[in-house]
Amino acid sequence: MYLTAKKSKKLKGKVNVPGDKSISHRALIFASQAIGECKISGLLESEDVLNTKKSLQKLGINIEKKRNDYFVSGNGIGGLSEPDDILDFGNSGTGSRLMIGLLSSQNFKSYITGDSSLRGRPMARVIKPLEKMGAKVNARQGNLLPALVEGNGMMLPLDNYEMEVPSAQVKSAILLAAMNISGTTTIIEKERTRDHTESMMKYFGMDIKISEKNGRNVIKFTGQKEYKAKNIIVPSDPSSAAFPIVAAIITEGSEILCRNILINPTRIGLFETLKEMGARLEYKNIRTEAGEKIADIKASYSPDLKGVKIPAERAPSMIDEYPILGVAAACAKGDTVMNGLAELRVKESNRLELIKKGLIQNGIKAVEKGDSLIVTGGKLKGGVTVTTHGDHRIAMSFLVAGLVAAKPIKVDEPHMIATSFPEFKGLMNKLGADIR
Ligand code: S3P
To answer: Which of 69, 320, 335, 391 is the catalytic position?
Structure first.
């Protein structure tokens, strides 16, 4: 199956983008460890998140949907039971890595797998720090999934662990393992990554302290302390909102409003960059809900987009947004220089390669230099099929490109969009896009 996007008229309207993927995974996991029932509102019902939900159910957690909310009955810290089946996380690096952390300090064995993309993604980044704490994880050759997490109820806290990769998934895996370990784990981050795990730990009243030392982020967490259930409201995902927002910015005459978008500072690198490029983008009605800052975002057609240089330090706050930024850069005047992209090579696909390839196929100059990508704005010619390697964000980005390209753009494996944003096509077409 393919999806094709054609040159579209202006995009207009107000939309609700679905819940944040990172917070949705964490909401389910933290609710499963609480004492009592948590109500989760606005949970993202994408394949990735539903795989985390199914895994928790296999671990003995009761999760029910009533109307639009999910009710999770937590059994407390260490209250999971051995699953009698393999836990399959599908396409999700977040689901698998966070759960490897949580499961490493339980008293039973778990077998973990995922789809062909996930089975090719590096797991050493989580296994190595967890092993320092006493975890036993038997992965396939090269530290790849499938893996057997042996489970060790006697693990030790990590002292002053300096993060080797700027990854919120790794940081969260360590913190989740530490929940069932007595003593204090300290993690030091040079580059700040998304902090939803820490925010949720604070929200539940857990023993976590965050400070800054010599420009580095120091996280201290003491585990094996029970916490009570609380309700969670999941804000809308800025990484999904990025697609209609960029579409509106590059499509003549457009003006859209995306409601309730998470604007946590560790997630809004793309919006900052777009503003620097001259995009007409405004935060309205800024407020805080369940410990996270949210706003309605108005985005309008911005005819004078110009290329900018994006510092490597900003990469963690927009790591999932480079594919769609590549499309915005193709529509801007001059060069957009994106630095510090090494992590893009180990996402759901080698995204650095696929952004470059897809742009070149569409007549745009894109050059890779070390860990940087330089895109020179031009005319997207379309009339091509973009190979996505099953990567949802590559698919959505080139469909957005198709809305302004001279000829239609077709993408393969569009079913993968359901891993993060099942409503993408319907929502875009409701705004006026032509995607079929
Ligand atoms: C995520 C962290 C990021 C991001 C992913 C979600 C998370 O990955 O790319 O989509 O929820 O923690 P890394 O932590 O590996 O950079």
So the answer is: 320
**d(CA 351, ligand 1 centre) in Å:** 14
Crossing angle for the helix pair 168-178 and 93-104, nearest 10 degrees?
A: 30
Burial 43-81 (b: 16+ CB within 10 A, else e): bbbbbbbbbbbbbbbbbebebeeeeebbbbbbbebebbe
Judge if 7 and 113 occupy the same domain.
Answer: no
Q: Please list the residues that pair with 434 across neighbouring strands.
A: 6
pLDDT at 185: 98
The predicted-structure confidence for 98-113, as pLDDT tens digits, reads as follows 999 999 999 999 999 9
Q: Judge if 143 and 56 occupy the same domain.
A: yes
CATH number at residue 223: 3.65.10.10
Q: Are residues 188 and 48 in the same domain?
A: yes
Give the Cα separation of 273 and 251 in Å (integer).
18
Tell which of 179, 205, 232 closes a domain. 232
Does 206 share its domain with 272?
no
Partner residues linked to 19 by β-bridges:
236
Task: Place 289 in a pLDDT band, splitting at 50, 70 and 90.
Answer: confident
Residue 290 predicted with pLDDT over 80: no
Q: Which residue is closest in CA terms to ligand 1's atom 10?
A: 320
Cβ of residue 167 lying under 6 Å from some atom of ligand 1: yes
Domain span including residue 194? 21-232
Are 228 and 88 contained in the same domain?
yes
247 and 391 in one domain? yes
Position 15 scores a pLDDT of 97
pLDDT tens for each residue of 391-419:
999 999 999 999 999 999 999 999 999 99
Respond yes or no: is residue 207 known to be catalytic: no
Domain count, the chain: 2
The residue type found at 84 is D
Domain's final residue, options 173, 199, 232: 232
For the whole model, what pTM was predicted? 0.98
Give pLDDT, residue 252: 98
**Ligand 1 in contact with 255 (CB < 6 A)?**
no
What DSSP assignment string belongs to 378-389? ------EEE--T
> Is 125 in contact with 131 (CB distance < 8 Å)?
no
